[in-house]
Design goal:
alpha+beta, Ribosomal Protein L25, Chain P, 2 domains, 4-stranded mixed sheet, 4 helices, 13 strands, 40% strand, elongated, ribosomal protein, Ribosomal_bL25_b-dom, RNA-binding, rRNA-binding, Ribosomal_bL25_C
Length: 203
């Protein structure tokens, strides 16, 4: 999985007053969990652009001004309900010998027979939770829709999972091919035409 670096500064004070002052200064208060103790730090809002405002999944290298470096993943993010401004971010420290769970996007490949016949591809899950060692975390889950005909569904059990596990029930649907209105109308018209008597023939 691709990684991005976030440079920040460790926080000495974590009260409401200092947190508000950080936000007013254009900084985002953050906490890193998963180690011996929680690490409180802050970083500029722009540092999170490629982490938060993207459909892709990343691991994170947190570099603090005191020389401390941590490998982590985004755990939780709080945003303002009106302005969408980032208010707070929680990270979880990762260790090379411990599996972690993270949400990754689904990448559709192939050409569905059902779609080519006029069906509509509907995405039930654009992201899936996977579990693996940090070195085996995938950038995405690859879903091949080639076998799907109209009315077919693609389940999580049908996608390859080398070196990682999908943390969803076996009956979880990734996507499906629905019969489109146009295809349904064409089928209905074809059925009517088949039932109608041929011209020139008596009933």
């Amino acid at each position: 999985m691709k990684s991005i670096t976030i440079k920040g500064s460790e926080r000495e004070s974590v009260g409401k007053v200092s947190t508000k002052a950080l936000r007013n200064a254009g900084l985002v208060p953050c906490v890193l969990y998963g180690g011996n103790q929680a690490v409180h730090f802050s970083a500029e809002v722009i540092a999170f652009k490629n982490l938060v405002y993207t459909p892709n999944a990343h691991t994170v290298v947190i570099e603090l001004g005191n020389g401390k470096t941590f490998n982590a993943v985004l755990q939780d993010i709080q945003v303002h309900p009106v302005s969408d401004k980032i208010l707070h971010i929680d990270f979880f420290q990762i260790h090379e010998d411990k599996e972690i769970t993270i949400e990754v996007p689904v990448k559709i490949i192939g050409n569905s027979k059902g779609v080519m016949a006029g069906g509509d591809l509907r995405m039930n899950n654009r992201k899936l939770k996977v579990k693996a060692l940090p070195k085996n975390l995938p950038d995405y889950v690859e879903a091949d829709i080639t076998p799907l005909d109209m009315g077919n569904k693609l389940y999580v059990t049908k996608v390859p999972t080398p070196n990682f596990k999908i943390m969803h029930p076996e009956n979880t649907v990734i996507c499906q091919v629905k019969i489109s209105r146009a295809a349904m109308k064409a089928a209905q018209e074809a059925a009517k035409a088949a039932k109608a008597p041929a011209k020139g023939k008596k009933k």
